[in-house]
Each structure stands twice: as structure tokens, then as C-alpha cells.
Amino acid sequence: MSPLISILLPTYEPDPAHLREAIESVLGQTESRWQLLVHDDASTVNVASIVEPFLKDSRIRFSRNPKRLGIGGNWNAVLALALSASPYLQFLFQDDTWHPRYLESALQTLERYPEAAFVTVGHAYVLEKEDVKLRGKFTHVTAMRKSMLREGLNNGKAFLRSWIRRSLHPNVIGEPSFVMLRKTAVEEAGAFRTDLQQCLDLEYWLRIVARHDFAVCEEELGTFRVHSKGASAAHYRNFWRRLERPRILMEFFLRRPLQR
Fold first, then answer.
1. What's the pLDDT score for residue 232?
2. Which CA distances in Å does 42 have to 65, 70, 111, 131, 254?
3. What integer pLDDT is reported at residue 131 of this predicted model?
4. CATH number of 5-255
5. pLDDT of 151 strictly over 70
């Protein structure tokens, strides 16, 4: 039988311990109708050797780009491998982990709200010691998420107007590790942009909520790891990368003025 959920795990120079924890959190899921596609972006780390012990489970596959494609390119590469296989698609990044009921709860929410293009699931942020100064930023994200989203079905256009008034800040829909997507919504939205260093997920959510409603499951069912080498920490340190958000907003309005 085809898997119900395709889990997409793009990797690049992963910490071996973190990657193992991520895969083990998939193996511990109460929902078992999944396939896991680990796809590496030409790392110098021997990712194949890290993943090899897990390949005893026939639901897990490993592949690798012959040359580096970058963040968006690698996301799109693994997405292309899964798009025809499953009605639900779920990213999991190499530093993140799920509670055992993550897939079960996300799937139940989407089945409860068939009009929802995706479900965003609550999660905790785990900051390593050297990144304590970022704690306030992620505390703000959590607080704004509770303010702007509500449990259950959310109106996409109403949310989008509120989000635009805040200049798309913060990304309350969250990281792809905690968003389960319907394949139909992904087919309509298309590929992730490859010209962005950050905010690829934010720009993708923007495309979807402009056309569709979405669901929220507020229970914390995973952990997002923030550390000095991670993309999230780099984003807050790099001024030029922070300019991507206003660029995305401007391009959105030039492409399609928001209907009132």
C-alpha cells in the first residue's frame, strides 16, 4: 500500500546525534502509515553512514544530490521524490524532533477539517546555552501565535490581512517541521523559491493562505532546536537576510493585490 504520509527530511552537514534523534522520533510515532525520505545536499559529513542503520526499516530511504543545490533546491528535490506517493506531506528538519503523537494528531486535525490546506502544530523551542539571547525572540513568536491563531479551522484571508498589518512578522504559522500539508495544496502552490536564504517557508505559507483556510493544533507535540550553527540563529544575526521579509511582502502585492 502507498504510504499515507510522506515525511521529507532534507539534510546538510547535520550533527549526527541530532539527525539520529530526528529519525528516532519518526520511528516512535503512534501513526505508522508513513515513508521517510532522507535527502542530503552533498554534505561533506558522511550522512549515508548515519542513516544506514535505520534503513533496515523498509519505510526509510536515503538519497543524495551529486552537487549542492542550497536550501530551497534541496527542499524541492526531496519534495519531488514524494509528491506522487502520499496525500499528506510533512517536512522534518535534521535538528528537530516530534512527540510520539505528532503525526496522529496532525492527521486527525486535517481529517476533521477537509477544507484546510494544512495544519500547523504547536511546538517548543529548545535553545542551546550560547543562544540564550535569542530566547526573547522565540518567546514573542509563541505569544503572537496564541494571539493570532485559534484552535481548529482558521480563515486564510482574514489571517492574511492581520499578518500583513504586522508586515508578516513573526512567522506564527511556523517552521515546516510542524506543518502537515495536503498534497493538493502543494501541487497548487508549486515549488519553494530558491532565491531566498531565509523565509522560504514564510513565503510559501503566504501563497497558500491567500487562497485557502488552514487548521491549528495548539498542543505542543515537538521541539525545534535553535543553536549557533542553525539557520534560525544565523537569520537573526544577519541584517541583509532580514530584508527578505519586506521584499516578499512587496513582491506579493505586485503579483496580486489582496482582495477586500
1. 54
2. 5, 10, 37, 27, 36
3. 59
4. 3.90.550.10
5. yes
Residue 135's pLDDT band (boundaries 50, 70, 90)? confident
DSSP secondary structure of 68-108: --HHHHHHHHHHHHHTTT-SEEEE--TT-EE-TTHHHHHHH
Q: What are phi and psi of 134, to 5 degrees?
A: -85, -5
Run of H or E residues at 110: helix 102-112
Measure the CA–CA gap between 132 and 128, rounded to whole angstroms: 7
- Residue 91 in contact with residue 22, Cβ under 8 Å? no
Q: Which residue has the cell 510533512?
A: 90
* pLDDT score at 251: 86
Residue 260 grid cell: 477586500
- Entry pTM: 0.91
SS3 (DSSP) at 124: strand
